[in-house]
From TrEMBL:
Record-level Gene Ontology MF annotations: DNA binding
Species the sequence originates in: Streptomyces lucensis JCM 4490
Pfam families in the record: GerE, Response_reg
Annotated keywords: DNA-binding, Phosphoprotein, Transcription, Transcription regulation
PROSITE patterns per UniProt: HTH_LUXR_2, RESPONSE_REGULATORY
Highest classification ranks of the organism: Bacteria, Bacillati, Actinomycetota, Actinomycetes, Kitasatosporales
Keyword DNA-binding attached: yes
Name of the molecule in the record: DNA-binding response regulator
Length: 233
């Protein structure tokens, strides 16, 4: 249950959308400590306020191309403790890969239509602030198309379905509810994925993250989608 107030810096050049998001976040218990309409303004706000998470539009002035993602990458380098959730009108897999090149922890990427779904958006913010990852299912789908799937091809349809849900950040309990099976059945499928991917238990066991990393890496990416709790399984 969400029981703390997130401190957020919001970067969006559209004043109307920015004001609407400030109102939305405030109504959901978040504190927007600063807003920015440009990448330099975002960087300055993060340095000054050290928020829990920065919410960043990918396309920002002056070129409306990748200023937001560049700023997000710089924030990751300067203040890795600050979570980053970027959003875009379209699926931009190249930019997502740039942002996640140094690791998936504390990163989110949502389509703007997802932001309108308030509960999903706020849940994603908290997940990112807690060191997890929140990627839009449409982005996951795009990244999983094409390429070789040597290890993935060894999975049964159900195992692939379970892994796909893992890639969207679902826990075993959540997957069980979605597939209308027992949690024990999901655990067996997850164990089978680990085995087929050659992932052995270690002292700091994060096989769940590694399985999704391997899944997406075989489809042209180097990152995973998971929540904070998944990294501890």
């Amino acid at each position: 249950m969400i029981n703390r107030r997130l401190r957020v810096v919001l970067a969006e050049d559209s004043v109307v959308l920015r004001d609407g998001m400030v109102e939305l976040l405030g109504a959901r218990g978040c504190e927007v400590v600063a807003t920015a309409g440009s990448a330099p303004g975002l960087l300055a706000a993060v340095v000054e306020h050290r928020p829990d998470v920065g919410v960043v539009d990918i396309r920002m002035p002056p070129t409306q191309t990748d200023e937001g993602i560049r700023a997000a990458v710089e924030i990751r380098a300067r203040t890795p403790e600050v979570g980053i959730l970027v959003f875009s009108q379209h699926v931009e897999t190249t930019w997502a890969s740039r942002l996640l090149a140094d690791g998936a922890a504390g990163i989110g990427y949502l389509l703007k239509e997802r932001v309108a779904r308030t509960s999903e958006f706020v849940d994603a913010l908290y997940r990112v602030a807690d060191g997890g990852t929140a990627l839009d299912p449409e982005i996951v789908t795009q990244l999983m198309r094409g390429g070789r799937r040597s290890r993935v091809d060894t999975l049964t349809p159900r195992e692939r379905e379970v892994l796909g849900l893992m890639a969207q950040g679902h826990s075993n309990r959540s997957i069980a509810a979605l597939l209308v099976v027992t949690e024990r059945a999901v655990e067996k499928h997850v164990a089978a994925v680990f085995s087929k991917f050659g992932l052995r238990a270690t002292g700091t066991d994060n096989r769940r993250v590694k399985a999704v990393l391997a899944y997406l890496a075989e489809n042209g990416s180097q990152w995973a989608v998971t929540d904070a709790s998944a990294t501890r399984r």
